[in-house]
Amino acid sequence: MSLPPFKIKVVEPVKVRTREERLEQARRAGFNLFHIPAEYVYVDLLTDSGTSAMSASQWSAMMHGDEAYVIPTHQGRAAEHLLFSVLVKPGDIVPSNTHFDTTRANIEVAGGEAVDLAIDEALDLHSDHPFKGNIDVEKVENLIERKGKENIPLSMLTLTNNTGGGQPVSMENLARLHALLFRHGIPLFIDACRFAENAYFVREREGAHSGRSILDITADTFALADGCTMSAKKDGLVNIGGFLALHEGDLARRIKERLVLYEGFETYGGLAGRDLEAVAVGLEEVVDIHYLAHRIEQVAYLGEGLRRAGVPVLVPFGGHAVYVDAASFLPHIPREHFPGQALSVALYLDSGIRTVEIGGVMFGKTDRETGEVVFPKLELVRFAVPRRVYMREHLDFAIESVVELYRRRDSVTGYEFEYQADVLRHFTARFRPVGAGSKSQVSPV
Prior knowledge:
By secondary structure, the protein is an alpha/beta fold. It has 2 domains: 169 residues, Aspartate Aminotransferase, domain 1, CATH 3.90.1150; 214 residues, Aspartate Aminotransferase, domain 2, CATH 3.40.640.10. Helix content is 39%, strand content 13%. It is built from 16 helices and 16 strands. The strands form 6 sheets. The protein has a 5-stranded mixed beta sheet with strand order 2-8-7-6-5. Strand 3, helix 4 and strand 4 form a beta-alpha-beta unit. It is globular.
């Protein structure tokens, strides 16, 4: 692993809780790990969003922030809401490689349909394709021909593809998509949460860009888009903030009118000047090749440790997280009992490690007419590694804990809903172990 390009000056003490304490918190939270208080988590791999350790330069920038104005939003989902509330009308279709949860929800709330058109290799857990985040351009073209370009107000491309395992998108794929959409007059927007990590993979895996600077690759990436949404809580290396960037002036004007209504004046978007300063510094720091090399290799270290022990994982490893195949990890638990959720809860109870399910809970749908549950193709658990936070010992502990759970995986039981919301149910749902009570009463999604 590359040597860390930083040193630690401030530490946060953590306490190892007992299994009984963790079980009590899990019961109070309805076995939803989003609701576990942070002080009851030892290693928190739930998300890499807003969990980065900020640098001395960023903290300095916050102290010197003078409330000067830029055009941000308070986080990425706010940028998505503004974009789709202006561009998407009922019946519209928005294709992407794979939409993540808030992106999909914001499209659907606007009355549109979010369509995933990743390449076939993206669904093959064992494929070694170097750019499994790529969108299938031929499928996009067929969609345009079938549905009509007038019903496709924009296309999204997520860099890296979070839902698909943090997998990168190649510059060649981006250029092909841009050419197709330009020919049909359809704008292309990038979900740029992890743009720097994507650029690193392009540099390492795409021969035409070998050895180029991250900044140059990033510039070429955004030159092929009409705009982007950005959660700065990822590759902005901050705890809050985001923005929406646009080329087209009239669209920018329309969105700014919504911005004032929902976020704040167009020059600050609901954020303090010190937060904006931290974002600006973070965007400069994140394109450093030494930081990125250490970051990507740290994730790979976690993944390789699990793979060597026989734990089923998605390969190649992505930029921000390792994804465990929960369906293979717990083959005795049927999809309707949510093996991903079961794995996440079991690991937390055992070791105080918090992860997140990306499978039937997050992306499952219940048909309102038939009552049939439609599950996503993959049932994963994401181990998201916060930036500049954990040391190798923490990762070794995570590896050992997962391996130990894998050895006695047959003892893990499934879960059922006690409550679920209509939108983004994974954030607020409550669960109970299968067999722990009467049949779940749930509202359809």
